[in-house]
């Protein structure tokens, strides 16, 4: 399995989403989001090439891949490197993805 490294913006994305789910639906919903995130990360560690590369061309970020979080309207954007997986952002599907990806890229 490949190790995972989180960019600071991705960590911020996760913190904000988890807090929102906690406020809206309580601890159970916040934990469900965390479980979906953990499942996605585990899957990518085992199969890093599984994510879609369609956003790579649109965003002009070579090797960028995206994986959806099961049960939540979020996409995890990541790049596979020889040394591991770098998670760039975890964004809500309704966001302006190109604008949010360029924020701090």
Automatic annotation (TrEMBL):
Indicate the family of this protein.
Answer: Belongs to the RelE toxin family.
Question: What keywords sit in the KW lines?
Answer: Toxin-antitoxin system
- Note the superkingdom of the native organism: Bacteria
Source species, please? Answer: Xanthomonas hortorum pv. carotae
User: What name has this protein been given in UniProt?
Assistant: Type II toxin-antitoxin system RelE/ParE family toxin
